[in-house]
């Protein structure tokens, strides 16, 4: 247990979430670790990834059941939006639910129709732990009830940390 994990109050692990693979994409290592500290105690298999040029190949390989990302990566405001578009235009990834955690309120407002149509859950920064946990539960529950993602058998990447790109 990391120091920050012990300081984060959280709900008990949920049996329905146990082992579900969640990919968190962010450009800040500290934020990635914070997400892991919040999500792992929920029973989720958390994989951390910095945004990288060849991210789709790696995401396909990881076969996440949920992707959490931000729209803003450093000074490049559209990188997260571009990644969301790539996920939704990829036949193998289009059904993976996405939770966007962002402070880009204007962008979210401008894209509200598209985000709603695609079933993207938005959590506005700053958010609290309960809001994030609820968004993750809701996205995974909706995906499960809609047929969810059929994962092929593959080696587990439990606890893997992917740092393919520069922060």
Write the layout of secondary structure elements.
Elements: H1 3-6, E1 21-25, H2 29-39, E2 45-49, H3 55-62, E3 66-69, H4 79-89, E4 98-102, H5 105-110, H6 112-117, E5 121-124, H7 129-145, E6 161-162
Parallel strand pairs: 1-2, 1-3, 2-6, 3-4, 4-5
Mean pLDDT, to the nearest integer, reads 82
Order of helix and strand elements from N to C terminus? HEHEHEHEHHEHE
Low-confidence stretches are 1-6, 149-167
| Radius of gyration computed on alpha carbons | 15 Å
How does the helix and strand content classify structurally?
alpha/beta
Number of strands: 6
Number of helices: 7
Query: What's the shape?
Result: globular
- Main beta-sheet strand count, sense and barrel state: 6 strands, parallel
Strand order of the largest sheet: 5-4-3-1-2-6
Helical residues, percent = 25-40%
Report the end-to-end length measured between terminal Cα atoms. Answer: 24 Å
The amount of beta strand, in percent, is 5-15%
